[in-house]
């Protein structure tokens, strides 16, 4: 691992990982205009109706809000990987990884997948374990939610670099929670890890990503120096239909 600007390097304060399993379905349904998605909520609304029929500890549907600055387009192109442009995400959390694997085979989940595929250009499914966490993600209705889709040739280097960049987010944006989802062996290799976190409001973090110089000189610079493609997307939670 190569560390750029070690004067800013502070590892994230972490809790022990959990035994939770995660089943994530992401879909690219609408269009992106630069960093903003189209107002495409039709598919998200359909999946919101189906998600409660899938028996999981937690089921949450998200629609994209914006794409903050990232890193690694050249690396993705060189590896033949399509950039992450998912404007709808459904995340299921289970008590165990085996529970997530079983959930993927359920009839209710397969119906949800068929609906997502029919209403989008591209989907991505993955079962993951919890590799690290700052704290469990608070899925409060008004929060802003991050999914950061990371790719690197060396996943162990990626995990090490993430500890320092997550430390920056804790210090500079008061990031209160984050879980690092690590795809199981044999799952699609487009992303070595997927980071999921939340903030109470968008102003909590967005100004730091746009205007704080160390975001580029430390966070993005360390991703680039270590061959990491970071593809963050910020989402809102879809409200339950019975609200």
Please characterize this protein's 3D structure.
The protein is α+β, with helices and mostly antiparallel strands and 243 residues long. It has helices at residues 42-50, 73-79, 97-104, 107-118, 155-173, 206-211, 213-225, and strands at 21-28, 32-33, 36-37, 58-66, 88-94, 122-135, 144-152, 177-183, 193-199, 228-237. The radius of gyration is 17 Å and the shape is globular.
List the helices and strands and how they pair.
Blueprint: E1 21-28, E2 32-33, E3 36-37, H1 42-50, E4 58-66, H2 73-79, E5 88-94, H3 97-104, H4 107-118, E6 122-135, E7 144-152, H5 155-173, E8 177-183, E9 193-199, H6 206-211, H7 213-225, E10 228-237
Antiparallel strand pairs: 1-5, 1-6, 2-3, 4-5, 4-10, 6-8, 7-9, 7-10, 8-9
Question: How do you describe this structure in short?
Answer:
The chain has 243 residues and is α+β, with helices and mostly antiparallel strands. It has helices spanning 42-50, 73-79, 97-104, 107-118, 155-173, 206-211, 213-225; strands spanning 21-28, 32-33, 36-37, 58-66, 88-94, 122-135, 144-152, 177-183, 193-199, 228-237. It is 30% helix and 31% strand.
Low-confidence stretches: none
| Share in helix | 25-40%
Strand tally is 10
- Please, what is the oligomeric state? single chain
Structural class: alpha+beta
Strand fraction: 25-35%
Q: Helical region count?
A: 7
Distance between the termini: 48 Å
Question: Could you name the key traits of this structure?
Answer:
243 residues, alpha+beta, 8-stranded antiparallel β-barrel, 7 helices
